[in-house]
Amino acid sequence: MSEVAVIGLGRMGSALAKALITSGRSVTVWNRTPGKAEALEHLGASRAETPSAAIAASSTLIVCLSDYAATSMVLDACATDLLQGKTVVQLTSGTPKQARQLEEWVANRGGSYLDGAISAWPSQIGGPEASIVIAGRESVFTSLEASLRLLAPNLTHVGNDISRAKVLFNAALAYFAGHWIGFSHGAAMCAAEGMDVAEFGETIAIRSVGVDITRLVEIADDLNINTAFPAFASDLFRNATDAGYGAEEHCAIVKVIRAW
Question: How far apart are CA 88 and CA 102, in angstroms?
Answer without folding.
Answer: 10
